[in-house]
Design brief:
The chain has 409 residues and is of the alpha/beta class. The protein has helices spanning 18-28, 57-62, 76-85, 100-104, 108-114, 139-145, 166-189, 199-206, 209-217, 252-258, 273-278, 280-291, 296-303, 315-319, 322-326, 368-375, 380-388, and strands at residues 9-12, 32-38, 51-52, 55-56, 66-71, 91-94, 119-124, 194-198, 234-238, 243-249, 307-311, 330-334, 340-344, 392-393. The radius of gyration is 26 Å and the shape is elongated.
Length: 409
Amino acid sequence: MPGPLAGIRVLDFTWHLAGPYGVMQLADLGAEVWKVELVYADEEIRGPGPVVDGINTYFFSVNRGKKSLAMDLRAPEVKEIVYELVKHVDVLTENFVPGTMERLGFGYEEMARRNPRLIYASTSGFGQTGPYRERGAVDVIVQGMGGVMSITGFPDGPPTRVGYSIGDMAGGLFTAIGVLAALVERERSGQGQYIDVSMLDCQIALLENAVVRYFATGEVPGRIGTRHPLTTPFQAFPTKDGWVVVAGVKDWELFCAAIGRDDLILDERFKTNQLRTQHHAELEPILNEVFRQRTTQEWLETLAEVCLIGPVNTVEQAVNDPQVRHRNMIVALPTWRGGTMRVSGSPVKLSRTPAGPYAGADRPGGHTAEILRAYAGLSDERIRELAARGLIALGEEVPAAQALGGGGA
């Protein structure tokens, strides 16, 4: 079954992680994505890697299902091609420093003039307006500036980056949400619009109750490890062979009985959640010692009925978890070199129009000729000429001259 975005075309100028990750969500949902790449792109320069079996794993993981279109955007002939292509797409995405697309001649006003229904989404570190507009940013910068690192880690440790690129990925996800909302609105108005997503804005949005707590109490949230500021016990505890996480208790007395510490029931310091949180420093070492007495699996079985509890998995354990496998969250996709690569699946489960991923990442320039032939009206002869001049790159074969049919300019 085709995905829910089947028939939607995206001209994708994004690079690195934030933009590609967001556009990948659209590809997973069935959109046809034309990914614009450097004319000299190869697996070594597509991303930080590692390159395994001739495939850049980093690039592959966030550009699956996209058709590679390799061009030199500085060339006047290529600019005219882009102007023609934009007439045939629904969405244009980019995540350059603000002003870059305008300097290339591909700003929103210029593109919307050619396609009034165009939805144009820009993802950047700080947005298109404001004093930081022209600054570049990457994941760790917006995690730091957005306050995330100040509340991640332990009180006696340094500010800590979240273990995956939440700064980039949040920007991509909010961009995808904006595109989907604009597509729905276009059905009513018939008009496209501009979307401006700031990675820093996204981190502020994700701070959730840390923001409201600060304004409500005047207290600045800080690093508290794995525990929760308002609920106790709510944290990771060491076991005999690993770690478990406990997320609150349904009944303190039942919990104490289950862990074999009935004496804690009568302890005035721990009778209510508020008191347990207030006396957390005294309760934590007691519970640490208790949890060290049994294995992770033993605690999962013992406490399943009295509290929310789960293991702290390694990445290896997580991707092999039976629930994760049952939900098809690890999928093997073909590579253009003939092998396969396993990646995360889509968490969006739709009953009639299931989400992808539908294909792996394309070879550099893998669909240049196909797209230019079908949507820019170029003949195979013209395509070969542009390739010979280094203005486009072809990852696929173009028919020999004697096999040519009619064509465009």
